[in-house]
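Hi L.,

As promised, Methyltransferase domain-containing protein:
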Amino acid sequence: MPRDQAADAQHLYDDRASKYDDSWHPRFARHVVDLLDLKPGEHVLDLACGTGLVTFAAAQAVGSTGSVTGVDISSGMLAQAHLKQLHANIENVTFHQHSITSLSNLDGVQGQQFDTITCASALVLLSNPTLALKHWVRFLKPGGRLIMDVTHIRSQLGHLTLERVGKSLAIPVPSYRLNFESPKEFEDLLSAAGLQNLDIRLVSQAQASGHGQGIDAYVCDVNQPRIDRVYVVEDGQAIFERLIVSRYGEALAADGGRDRARELFLEEWAKLANDKGEIEEVDGVFVGVGWKPD
């Protein structure tokens, strides 16, 4: 049975809302805005805006003559965003609680087109990213640009392995990283939506160059990504036990399915090992910018 993507996202991020900013995401949000080179007076649509990390950075860049519209399904994440807005008295930002996959029935964006659309750290939560992206591009001005990202297929290996288990059992978990086995599939997604002049970079969470604070210090060679952590096959048991009690694993654990899920998880986890028995986890996300033709 297909999952309810909006409900999944709301549950996942309501749980994380109070601690979401205690992570690499604030720095990554600044890089997202830097890549867009926003101009004063521009209008931005920030999808899956969460606690407003990209939203408020973009609002500062576009100034009082511009605006940012944030959309997110999670009431918990938006509560954090509203608190920030109130504290800083930011007037050029509007938030809406709504699914980002059905903007056509959101009054706050009807009849509008934006200079820029952003979607940070959320595309892999969508079961049909191709359909979603084509829908979003309708709200982009000719000549406007869109930015989004997907995790490297060797990143967050526990979640990836759990997703493979769900696929085997026809019990999907609330993430869809398998849509992007390579950066080519990400590029194809952007192209299929009609975007051009694509710029795709592999960006690390930790500094790749060892110096500087700008995005260039975090960009990695696609063919030589930064290895964040090295596991062994025996680590799979503990990783499974941690994930199976999370929101990602609850469907697999239901109705007595935990033992079978564990068996498949350990099989898939072992397949990730190299000839030394090591399992290398990559630190990185692919960030893509594409332009709508004039």
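The beta strands are 43-47, 67-72, 93-97, 114-119, 140-151, 196-203, 219-220, 227-232, 278-282, 285-291.

Thanks again for sending the construct details.

K.
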